[in-house]
C-alpha cells in the first residue's frame, strides 16, 4: 500500500490531501480521494484504471473532493472500461452529484462508458466489494453526513482508518487488533474540536491494541514536533507491505 496523500485540508507541509492506495491480489482500492488525489495518482505513477473501489470516510473536500476529477478522467482521458464502485456514508450520492455540477456543470448527466456504482454504507454493517470487507463505524466530525472510521479486511489482513474525528469509543472496535491502524494526529496535544490529537491517541492505545500505527493528516503543529513522536508517520509516497 502507498500513501499518495497524507496531508490535512490546508496543505500543511506541502502534502496532498488524504488518499491511500492499497493493492491486494490483482486488484486495488483507494481509502479516501481528497481534492488533490488525481494529481497524486499521476505523481506516483498509479494507473486510475487499476482502482476497482474507492472507500470514502466522510464528505469533506479533502477526503472526497477528488471524485469528480477521477470520474471525468475515467471518462475522457483514461478511457476506463471496467466498473468502478464508490462506497461511503449516507448522503454520498447527492453530495457527489452536487460537487460534479459545481466543478463541471453538466458532468453528472454524462452517460459513462463504464459502470459506476455509488453505494451508501450503514454504520456497523459489513459489506464486501471486490474481495474487500468494509465495516464503517460512526465517529465525531460534523460534515453534513455521518462520518466514518473504516475497518477493511482483505486476504487475511486488516487495515483500519480513523478518518477525521475527536476521540470516541467507536474507534476501539474499528481499530482493535488491526494489522495497521492509520490514525489522524492533527495536533500534538492542543485540543481541537472534532479532531484527534497525538496525546489523545496515546492515552487510548491500551484499548485499541493495533499491531502497527501510522499517523497521518498532520497539521503544521504536529509536523513540527515529529521528533517527539514515537510512532511511524506518513509521508506522501510512503509505501509499505503488510
Describe the structure.
- This protein has about 240 residues and is an alpha/beta fold.
- The protein has a single domain (about 1-235), classed as Ribonuclease Z/Hydroxyacylglutathione hydrolase-like (Metallo-beta-lactamase, Chain A).
- It has eight helices and 13 strands.
- The chain has helices spanning about 35-45, 60-65, 65-75, 90-105, 170-175, 200-205, 205-210, 220-225, and strands at about 1-5, 20-25, 25-30, 55, 85-90, 115-120, 125-130, 130-140, 150-155, 155-160, 180-185, 215, 230-235.
- The longest helix has 12 residues, at about 90-105.
- The model has no long low-confidence stretch (mean pLDDT about 95).
Main features:
242 residues, alpha/beta, Metallo-beta-lactamase, Chain A, globular, seven-stranded mixed β-sheet, single chain, six-stranded mixed β-sheet
Distance between the termini: 8 Å
CATH topology: Metallo-beta-lactamase, Chain A
Quote the average pLDDT: 97
Architecture per CATH nomenclature, i.e. the level-2 architecture: 4-Layer Sandwich
**CA-based shape:** globular
Percent of residues in helical segments?
10-25%
Structural class given helices, strands, pairing?
alpha/beta
User: Can you say what the CATH homologous superfamily is?
Assistant: Ribonuclease Z/Hydroxyacylglutathione hydrolase-like
- Number of structurally distinct domains: 1
Order of helices and strands: EEEHEHHEHEEEEEHEHHEHE
What strand line-up does the widest sheet have? 7-8-9-10-11-12-13
Output the number of helix runs: 8
* Rg over alpha carbons: 17 Å
Largest sheet: number of strands, sense, barrel closure: 7 strands, mixed
The residue ranges in which pLDDT falls below 50 over 5 or more consecutive positions are none
Per DSSP E runs of 2 or more residues, the count of β-strands stands at 13
